[in-house]
Design a protein that fits this description.
single chain, alpha/beta, Rossmann fold, Helicase, Ruva Protein, domain 3, 4 domains, 5-stranded parallel beta sheet
Length: about 475
């Protein structure tokens, strides 16, 4: 209960002191103000879970006016009004303006304790609903990660080991390999599984809004900050913070993140209060962060802070034996979303799917199966519902035509080598080390071929 903040507002010193002492004994963090004006100074600089205010307070701001001002600054703050001079009109106005409840003086101590407990329970329930809605909106599709390949077995073993610790984890791999599922599997297998899992896709949020999103902000701290807002770091307290595509985080924000990880403390944008949040950090990236460090696009000290344990996600090309399992899983998943009873896939269609290179990995495979089930008229997925691009790609690699005049093998091999090199560079975002790993060649050989085929200055757009 030590994270519940309550503000008591009353111009009578005896009542203010009584409520403050009683609430502190109950385990709440309590502050007090003797007027509406003083209360607003507190509220503009701090987020309270509950405000308990008298209605009649001298000639200044009364309780109902204070209620209106509170709701304009921090809509989620609950307000309990107390008064010795109640009327039906006053009560109706209080509820109309958003009061949680209304209490007459003199009141029974147990009665106010019960009302406060109910208010706090409602607030916590609303926070939990928001968290669960975020889980759904993030499209957490799978309860289990699919795969029997040896590389996936290694991933499972690492998940089991790291889940028992609070060590920072860096998950690496191409887009669509399931890095977010691994992050969730670690969280839900860990000691903080009952806490929130807060996920943020770093490049999806404009740089100008990223600091506010992560740290929160106070009303008026910048244009558009019309209310106080808790940031994601604060929401992740006692849970897991998942920073997806951390390689895209701006350098300025990397510095601030490093400080949060070192101190576990931060301030909201425009705020003075230092906030502590105890969260477990998991990051993911499809970039080569060591290469980014060399190019001064990523901080080396942050890299070693987030990379205590590294989990490398294999591509779908590296675990083709899992494709039939994944296809079966996705067919079952989308069976209930169509009126057609599709319960499998033909051998011919599966063969084409097995031959394809899957640059978009599991995410692309899922989209193709969903598309096929939408277009298919038979009771199994057939070749007809597989996109032409995938069918054509499979056919290209099936056979070589020599023709009547034979084949200039050196020219052909040069052409194919260049084609595979361009493909590898495209798939790895132009990162030489990753392209070398994909083609199972030394990095120096990749650089030699890039020079040979005059690809040194080619852009990613031209690779397309």
């Amino acid at each position: 209960m030590n994270d519940i903040h309550i503000l008591v507002v009353d111009d009578e010193e005896s009542m203010r002191g009584f409520l403050t002492l009683m609430l502190k004994k109950e385990g709440y963090i309590v502050e007090s103000a003797q007027s509406g004006e003083e209360a607003l100074q507190y509220i503009e600089n701090k987020i309270y879970d509950l405000v308990i205010s008298d209605i009649q307070m001298g000639d200044g701001i009364n309780g109902v006016e204070l209620l209106k001002r509170i709701k304009s600054i921090s809509e989620d703050t609950m307000v309990l009004l107390i008064t010795a001079y109640a009327t039906v009109e006053t009560a109706l106005e209080a509820f109309r303006e958003g009061a949680w409840d209304y209490l007459m003086k003199p009141f029974d101590v147990n009665e106010i304790k019960i009302k406060i407990r109910k208010a706090i329970d409602k607030r916590q329930l609303e926070d939990e609903v928001i968290r669960l809605r975020k889980e759904v909106s993030d499209k957490y599709k799978h309860q289990n990660i699919i795969g029997k390949d040896n590389k996936m077995q290694q991933v499972y073993a690492l998940i089991e080991k790291v889940a028992k610790t609070d060590a920072a984890v860096l998950i690496t791999g191409e887009s669509g390999t399931g890095k977010d599922l691994v992050a969730r599997a670690i969280h839900f297998s860990s000691t903080c599984k009952d806490g929130p899992f807060i996920s943020i896709n770093c490049p999806a949020i404009p740089e100008s809004l990223l600091e506010s999103e992560l740290f929160g902000h106070m009303k008026g701290s910048f244009t558009g900050a019309v209310q106080n807002k808790k940031g994601l770091f604060e929401q992740a307290n006692e849970g897991t913070m998942f920073l997806d595509e951390i390689g895209e985080l701006p350098l300025q924000m990397q510095v601030k993140l490093l400080k949060v990880l070192q101190d576990k403390k931060f301030r909201r944008v425009g705020g003075m209060e230092e906030i502590t949040s105890n969260f477990r950090l998991i990051c993911a990236t499809n970039r080569d962060l060591l290469n980014a460090i060399e190019e001064n696009r990523f901080r080396e000290d942050l890299y070693y802070r987030i990379n205590v344990i590294q989990i490398d996600m294999p591509t779908l090309r590296e675990r083709k034996g899992d494709i039939p399992l994944l296809v079966e899983h996705f067919i079952r998943k989308y069976q209930g979303r169509t009126e057609k009873q599709i319960n499998g896939i033909t051998r011919e269609a599966l063969a084409i799917i097995m031959d394809y290179t899957w640059p978009g990995n599991i995410r692309q495979l899922e989209n193709i199966i969903e598309r096929a089930m939408t277009l298919e008229y038979e009771d199994k997925i057939t070749i007809d519902s597989i996109p032409e691009k995938i069918k054509n790609s499979a056919q290209k690699f099936d056979k070589i035509e020599l023709g009547d005049n034979g084949l200039d093998l050196k020219e052909y091999l040069d052409k194919e080598t260049k084609r595979y090199l361009i493909y590898a560079l495209k798939m790895t975002g132009g990162v030489h080390t990753k392209a070398a790993k994909m083609l199972r060649m030394p990095v120096r050989s990749i650089r030699y071929l890039i020079e040979k085929y005059d690809l040194k200055d080619i852009t990613l757009e031209e690779l397309e």
